[in-house]
Amino acid sequence: MNQVPSNPNSNGAAGNSTAGSAGGASGSGLSPAGASPTFSPLYQQIKALITQSLQSGEWKPGELIPSEVELAGRYKVSQGTVRKAIDELAAEHLVVRRQGKGTFVASHNEARAHYRFLKLMPDEGVPHQPDHHYIEVKRIRAAAEVARLLDLKSGDAVVYIKRLLSFEGAPTILEELWLPGQLFKGLTAERLAEYKGPMYGLFESEFGTRMIRATEKLRAVAADAGVATYLKVAEGTPLLCADRVSFTYGDKAVELRRGLYLTTAFHYQNELS
Amino acid sequence: MNQVPSNPNSNGAAGNSTAGSAGGASGSGLSPAGASPTFSPLYQQIKALITQSLQSGEWKPGELIPSEVELAGRYKVSQGTVRKAIDELAAEHLVVRRQGKGTFVASHNEARAHYRFLKLMPDEGVPHQPDHHYIEVKRIRAAAEVARLLDLKSGDAVVYIKRLLSFEGAPTILEELWLPGQLFKGLTAERLAEYKGPMYGLFESEFGTRMIRATEKLRAVAADAGVATYLKVAEGTPLLCADRVSFTYGDKAVELRRGLYLTTAFHYQNELS
DNA sequence: AAGTGGTCTAGACCACTTT
DNA sequence: AAGTGGTCTAGACCACTTC
User: Which of A63, A197, A249, B85 has the greatest CB tally within 10 Å of its CB?
Assistant: First the structure.
């Protein structure tokens, strides 16, 4: 993290080898010198420093981060370099820029973020907020497969959640979740049921874990007897099955989720671009 | 297209009101003055001019476009402004940058592009190229729904294609397509069958229509008798149904596609980011 | 008026590719 | 050596928000 690729300045102001030392100003424990010796552009190093401040909670979701000018001074680089770093963070939805106001830490407790991880849309009309019914919330031991995907040891504590989501009275989504017990200690059915807003908003504001991105594998499956009862459909009804792995900062997997979607009046909306 | 937001130059070189006149250099018929009077940043205007050259075929898929320096001279703006325009075009996959070589028009006839619109992956192992079997290729008249989605008139000519894709002998995808007859005049089963590479590659190189982006609606459905025969499964087997609308330059819809995927050994891979 | 992000310019040098 | 995109700086001004 200490090397700077070059020093093309003739003036004395913007000296080199500064990004690393400036990194020390970001507070918490940075990994010491002996890291990977690969070169990277200055703006990538700045981006990494800013990301560390986000991850450490120095700037929390919804909060204003320092201005580009201030960050440029702090890291001893030009505003343009800070700008390019923040541009990429904004493209990854880690921060949100607002002209005239500043740059804010992205939060799932915002209208704009609500449909980034909820791709099920009604075939007709505008989306409504679903009713949540928590069927089961308990702490269990991780099975081998769950442990592998969450990078835990087999038998480690895991929070298991099973819930049913209904749109205007129509049960539509049956979901199971597995979360690392370590990260979600006080998570109970009550906390979940009473929380207004998206589940990821609760995770980020109450448990300090913010979901950054996710991968999903989609399949068509037949409803078994138990599932059919919850969704009030015939056994064997085709359902859309979405197996999700969600990641937080540092590409660390922190959630498994299996969703079974009844797609008679809803569809999974996707953009290929 | 003629206005330039401001003229912050004190030197005489980079004059104003030049982007518009430079646009005339791109050859084909630009829309005259009376367009919308909304302001837009210079780099957005440059981006629009470059996009027009892409759309008009001045630079074809796979070809090298002029260097940033040359474009800056042509449009009478700084290299940085051209750079920002091309940055966005690269982010939208309209062009591909290669350091030291130049900027190229993106093409579906490239390994890198093969999996942008083909999201079905094997559960195990690496993806293989499927075998194509064309069941039906004919010209028909557009039904109301097809006409509406393709922005045609009901009854206009449409090319209809039905094909079966198999991976290592296992029939997996049954697909139907509807294409505007106007744009795909010489499209026959022979042309399709003999073409090596992705179908979108054929469309762009033989018919001058390049797919830029698409939307998909995914549902789980039950295989009916006909579909079950093609895919060699029992009637009622759950299948993943993907209804796609593809767009070319100018957000013009130019393809409808319904894919039925057998997801016992395959899944639809999606990234939420 | 002051502060923020957004745009634009000009010039330098680096990394990579080709000649 | 020459040409390309990639990085970095410095400074100017614009658009928007707040005080």
Answer: B85
pLDDT tens for A139-171 read 999 999 999 999 999 999 999 999 999 999 999
Chain A residues whose CB is inside 8 A of the B239 CB are: 220, 238
Q: Is the dihedral of CA A47, A49, A54, A59 positive or negative?
A: negative
Q: Is the pLDDT of residue B216 over 60?
A: yes
Is the CB of B80 less than 7 A from some atom of nucleic acid strand D? yes
Whole-angstrom distance, CA of residue A202 vs CA of residue A189: 12
Which H or E run includes B192? helix B189-194
**Which two tokens mark B9?**
């130059």
Tens digits of per-residue pLDDT, B142-193?
999 999 999 999 999 999 999 999 999 999 999 999 999 999 999 999 999 9
Q: Answer yes or no: pTM beyond 0.85.
A: yes
φ, ψ for residue A209 (rounded to 5)? Answer: -115, 115
DSSP string spanning A151-188? T--TT-EEEEEEEEEEETTEEEEEEEEEEETTT-TT--
In the prediction, which pLDDT does A122 show? 98
Using the beta-carbon criterion (under 8 Å), do A272 and B116 form an inter-chain contact? yes
Domains of chain B, start order: 8-16+110-268 (3.40.1410.10), 19-91 (1.10.10.10)
